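Problem 3 from the worked examples.
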Amino acid sequence: MSSSFTERSQTSLSASASQTHPQDISLEALVSHLLASKRSLSSISTVWRANEIVTSARESLEESVKLSARTGFLRAGIAEQANLLRKVRRGVDDIYKEGQKDFKAVLRTLDDANSRLESTMNVLRSTMVEAAFRPEAEDPRSLLDFVDEQGVETMRDALRRSIRESREAQTSFDSSMMSFDNDYHALKSAITASPTLTTSQFNDSLSHSPIPEHLQVLETNAQEMAALLDSLVSHFDLCVNAIRHTEGGYAAVRKAASHQPPDVEPVSVSGVMGTSQHTGEEEAVNEEERREMLAVLQTDASQVEDVVAELSEHLADMESIYLSITDHVSNLSSTYDSTISAFTILEALSAHLPGYLMAASDFTMQWEDTKSGIQEQLDELEAMRIFYENYHASYDGLILEVFRRKQAEEKVKALIKKTMDQIEKIRQADSVQREAFRVDVEDFMPGDLWGGVGVTAPKWDLVQTCADAANSKTFVGSTPELSRSVVEAAGKRDRDRQ
């Protein structure tokens, strides 16, 4: 109802005043109105409940303000810290990615260096030493048989060890970063987790809480309910006053109160009617005043049930609004609890953070040391490859040198042969002349004058010698004979290198 029961009573009173001599209300009707009015006063419990709701709503408003302030402060701080953690994680990830990129580059360099070395070794392995260089009974041997491969394997083992240590460092770093990610994801989940309130809704609730508006409605309803209850009390007082000014009213009320139907809410009238048994003891009213009072009572009595129903409607509305308030506070409380959980996780992550940063630092330092060691081993690997290539080149040079020496020997032999032929001709001519001289003088010259007169012409010979006394007996006249194809192949490889 939009107007109070009192206002309606006043309207009814005005209307009754304009009527002429309304009929008196029977005593039975008056008693019925009194008992109904007394029952309606039990609606005071709805007003008490309304007062409880308003009081609780005010407390909820205070609680919501505290929760919103605390949650907002914590969430802002957590968001700021989470942003810093995200930057730290991105920086650590950059370190890891840079390390992985560097590691892959080193592996590619290692593979290339090892491939080049293996290719050079395969060349040595496939290059068989010419049999002319070796003893006749020896089995065929390659150039690789004359070098120690153990040095290469030792170096490769050292490289494998360095790579394994680097992978172990990466695995340890991976584990640390995975723990970092798990902590960070747990923090994000805790920040966004809320049973019924999303982040955007929570932010809206900080700037516009529905509770003040709801509280205003509740207070208005409570005031209207209080006014309605006051009207019911006034109506009850009017009924009591009418009974008091009606002969036999007291007895009729007591009788009716003691014989109430079973399906009707029992009503106690003890203390209501007082102890006076005579209307004469009451303040006297004239007939006109009594008629006016009965007219108002009759009109208001017809609306008591509506007023009680209206009180119930008001209370139902208030209960519904209060449920919305409690739901809102519950959501705020849940969000606050989840924020506290997020803050707890943030504290744990902050405690773990130095360890994550130390892991990144250790990984960087260890990788730099490992990379430096690998680079030194790479240099040794490359130096060994260059040594093997020079070894192969020197073998081709040996073939060309032997060929050159053989050509020099052939030139010397040709020159010796020509010289020996000329010496023989001279010796033969000398022999003829000696014999002719001997024939001419043998009859005249004593034989003991010079014993060499009859000696025949001496034979001459060239003897090969070696300046290296240590090797003179072994290698004199032992320059190997190489096929022309071998020499040409060695010459082509030598030209290609240059």
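Problem 4, a separate protein:
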Amino acid sequence: AYLTVSIEPLPPVVVGDAVTLKCNFKTDGKMREIVWYRVTDGGTIKQKIFTFDAMFSTNFSHMENYRKREDLVYQSTVRLPEVRISDNGPYECHVGIYDRATREKVVLASGNIFLNVMAPPTSISVLAADTPAPFSRYQAQNFTLVCVVSGGKPAPLVYFKRDGEPIEATPLPEPPAGAGSWAPRNLLHRDLDDTKVPKSLAAEGEVGGGRLTATADPPRGLAAERDPVTETIPETVVSREFPRWVHVAEPIYYFRHTHAPVSDGTVEARATLTWTLNPQIDNEALFSCEVKHPALSMPMQSEVTLVAPKGPKIMMTPTRARVGDTVRILVQGFQNEVFPEPLFTWTRVGSRLLDGSAEHDGKELVLERVPAELNGSMYRCTAQNPLGSTDTHTRLIVFENPNIPRGTEDSNGSLTGHCGFRLVLALTLTVILELT
């Protein structure tokens, strides 16, 4: 007797699809059994998913004439109505027939197939690395956008666009160890008026549109601080909120793509885009991260617009503060959508904060048990991100508290009893001195 087994090949399928595995076999013998296996753990474990035993079934008893030799073609199918990522892997179809020479002997043959289950990404997001963080107004700094794509299988193709145009970026196999590992770009770290460029710089290139076009090949790379000793400072410095960087070339983008397997069989992909930020030209620039994947009919996209903060909205509670109250001053939002997340710094105009510190970081400033001396005090909230900064002031008005008699508050805002803690302490010390 002879037996041939084959499984019809399948293209990659997408999660949620209905899939039918087809096992074709041809024989001139009598059917014994058909068994389907799902193979896991690299082939060490075989899990039965379908069994047909001819000994306990009469389905085929009328289809074969044992005395007449002829070829019989069969097909066994297994249907997976809604495939999942966990269904990904190899499958085997085992067929057994009785040998024509002796009924005690069984001839076995098998076929195998690998079911490739794809999954489209489930989420995509763009965020700014290392924010919120202080930003120097007078030093060009590197800026990195991170695109995180989760839930896909296989790993997707991720790329960035600026204002709808694909970005040509230099690929990076490994993340930078530090600024010293990058070739420095020839940048000025001071705010220059276009008409006040030092002659030494004018000799190297032409001034136009706030940029220099160097005739010599400048070092190319991300921003690194120049030696302040060798930097020429112009006589006239124009004060702006952020300097208009003088670039010797168009921005150079650096791109890095990594992916890590997840326990559910999918992949998390991370793509980073790094360049020397120029607040003058990057403010209100639209950056998008796009994803191509074989399980997607069209690219998946997430976009952000780089915007400096404008017009913080401040809320103070309680609205009518009294002596001894705890006052909270909170930034509720801005007049615009801000990205990246700003860093908030609180200061008291002309003095230190109530706790004695010079400044406080965070969206909220809390003043515990305010004393009457804070009445009329002015507080400044500075909100800044790498694109710019803005200041908002609010004045604290403290009203008298009828529950606290006047004169029962010390200079630190601590409330005392009618006798006064300091007076009791002084009298106690006097008595002790007299006794001695």
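Solution to problem 4. The longest strand covers residues 30-40. The chain has a mean pLDDT of 78.
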